Predict the 3D structure of the following.
Amino acid sequence: MTDVAYAGTPQAGPAFITARGLEKHHGQTHALRGVDVTIRQGEIVAVMGPSGSGKSTLLHCLAGVITPDTGEVTIDETQISALTEDQRSRFRLTRLGFVFQFGQLLPELSAEDNVALPLMLAGTRRARALVQAHSWLARLGLEGMERRLPSELSGGQAQRVALARGLVNAPAVLFADEPTGSLDSLTAERVMETLTEVVRNTGTTLVIVTHDARVASYSDREIFIRDGRVTSPALEGAM
Amino acid sequence: MDTSLAFLGLVEARPGHGYELKQLYDEHFGGAKPLAYGQVYAMLARFARDDLVEMVGVEDGSGPSRKQYRGLPEGRKRVIEWLVTTDAAASVSCTNLFAKVVIALLLDEDAARILNAQRSALLDAMRQLTRAKQNAALLDVLAHDHALLRAEADIRWIDLAEARLNNVKESLS
């Protein structure tokens, strides 16, 4: 089945991420059953669905974290599934960003080192990486907190550090898995406002996995998954 | 809820006489407000006049004779049109959506798609509210928050209803 753009969907640009015929098993579980997805450059898309529906599996396939059993994923004309593991790793480091629930910051590293890490892993020298990290931390309202450890930050501050880490390598696509799952309503709202403002300003494509309708309300459209299939919101001709 | 279309949906799904249909309606949708007999017979007469249902016989008994009704294709068409029309998000009534889901299940139609479409319409409305909150005065933000949370509650009900659809269908059969 194919996701359907309904009336009002912003057509932000040409197809940027395409997935065709994705199938994925986890043991006996058939997590994805022939998923087709098209996401345009600069779009903000929410991937929604109940627990176990396959939404995180889809995110991981799109991001090249796992390889589908069959089907292919293309991002900006690079066919991810055709890359070697090393090439895929390099592609993730240089072209993609990630934000996870609870931030998943490295607890022994300061905020600045957490943010600088993706750049250093991609080969940027520490001094230069820190300059960029400071710039992103300031942009996200965290000036003066560069040396703090994650344990010295509030939940909202830690998640902003995680956003800075996801954005520091100027990714073409930012993947976010329940990015506000651990935050109270008001803090979650501020994180989403910051996140969407930054990606709109930078033209970054954003794919958010969430079960939270308020988080999804910051998106341009949703892709709803149930039992490993994309379901269509269109009713016309359904009956 | 659109009482007339929900009642027509029941005639389409379960042909019967007025009393039986009223009992069925009250069981599913009546709650604290069961249908009045006058309303039942007025609706059936109007449906018959408009060729949405037809009278197929009269059952004699100890009391007054009972006219048997069954749905016609035009009636089913009218019901399906109601099922596939997504409610305007600002006026989503869960009782109307509830009635649509029950009628769709009774007619063996795809109730999950009705829920899915309504969820999508609500998300669209939430997007508009979220956009409206940006740069709005604080009191407007509070008002939009209220509307957002109501829509979110409707979506959570839709999620639960979808998860329970198979069991609900079994309970109706």
